Amino acid sequence: MSTELIPRPVAIALRFAQVAFAAIVAGLIGYFLNVLGGDGDSWTTGRWIYAEVVAGASIVLGCILMIPSFHGCFVWPVDITLGLAWLAAFGNLVNTLDGTVCGQIDDISNFSNTNANCAQGQAGEAFAFLSGIAWLVTGILGIYYVWRSDQQRLGYWAKHYEV
């Protein structure tokens, strides 16, 4: 019987999705930061920078955790932490775009005097949410894997020794 919860190709696909989602968010938010420059509220810019930092950390850690030697490691706290950081970034992005001309869900207009349109910002929001869910899923699977291996170990001692 296999001790793996999910096959390695599926685990690598989840990690690849995490890196891809983070790269998409980094590109979209980086484009907004470049186009809008310093012409805006510093609070809004800070929220976009937070999303960029979380995206950068996700890209780096996602690439490191794709290395096969990390598959059996105890990394679920990293997954849960980044998942929660992504959900915070998602909330920040939603709040940020709500205060601009992109406040409506079906608004695809452009920001004033720029080429940045609302659909790009909303795509950044969507991929931030997807990234948060992907990190949380791997974290929850990691917690389950640790719990299951602990349960198997408890049964080993009870069967083989007089306890």
Automatic annotation (TrEMBL):
Its main location: membrane. Keywords: Membrane, Transmembrane, Transmembrane helix. GO terms for cellular component: membrane. The chain crosses the membrane at residues 12-36, 48-67, 74-94, 126-147. Pfam families: MARVEL. The keyword Transmembrane applies. It is a multi-pass membrane protein. The keyword Transmembrane helix applies. InterPro entries: Marvel. It is found in: Membrane. It comes from the Eukaryota. Residues 11-139 form the MARVEL domain. This is MARVEL domain-containing protein.
